[in-house]
Design a protein that fits this description.
Blueprint (H helix, E strand, L loop, with lengths): L9 H15 L2 E2 L6 E6 L3 H18 L4 E5 L2 E6 L9 H14 L1
Pfam families: Pterin_4a (PF01329)
Enzyme class: lyase
Catalytic activity: (4aS,6R)-4a-hydroxy-L-erythro-5,6,7,8-tetrahydrobiopterin = (6R)-L-erythro-6,7-dihydrobiopterin + H2O
Length: 102
Amino acid sequence: MSCGSPLLTPEQRSNLLQPLIKEKGWKITPGRDAIQKEFKFEDFNEAFGFMTRIALKADKMNHHPEWFNVYNKVDITLSSHDVQGISERDVKLATFIEKCFK
């Protein structure tokens, strides 16, 4: 049972996903329908604060990222597991993540 958004249509991929890829540096994850980006910070505290802001929003959305953190780097992968691919929720969370990164 899907509790979120359906997979992005080809038109949505063009209109919603491409700006994240072309303008913000997100990449399609090889071998799966997901988007990924690595973020780099001054130090661990800054990276952890970034993750905390995202965690609070993700929990409210009931849409949790896959992520990996080492010191000042945070690698984030977004995909909607309930539909096994990229949905509008991934785009919304990626857009929020970009706002947190500024």
